[in-house]
What we know:
This protein is an all-alpha fold. It has one domain. Helices cover about 90% and strands about 0% of the residues. The protein contains four helices and no strands. Helix 2 (about 40-75) packs antiparallel against helix 3 (about 80-115). The two termini are about 20 Å apart. The relative contact order is 0.19.
Amino acid sequence: MFTFILNCLEFLILSGYFVIAAQGVFYHLALGRVFMKIPTAGFLELRQATDRYIRRPLKVFYVSMPLLMLTGIVLGIGYLSLTASLCMGIALLLLLLDIRLILRSSEPINQLVNQLTDLPNVEGGNNLQHAWVQTMLRRGYFNGMGFLSLIVGQVFG
């Protein structure tokens, strides 16, 4: 029964981390370049509209995933291979680095963007746009590598 619970926990961790990593991969594949090419006012309007809908669901993942992963590492002692445990630990560390970037860069930019009202005439909007895209690309590296680490742990662990 314990092995089944641990397998379910690993499934939840992989699934939840996938949701987080998918946004970063999507920015690297296309959306980062798209966001750098569109006019600043359009970018700001899109960010405001998107933020209203994505903020709450992503907060659930970003709060629950470190807790699930820490639980998986602790419960997995003696049950998971060293490779699987190390890979989950690496993924957790990369997720925590992503959360640090959220708190230090993404959230302050999002707050500024969400307070703007005269989008076509925003002074410094291009700087916000560039900083936000660069932050998302950096975050994408962290959570993409974290997800790959989890996959390696599952396949080789």
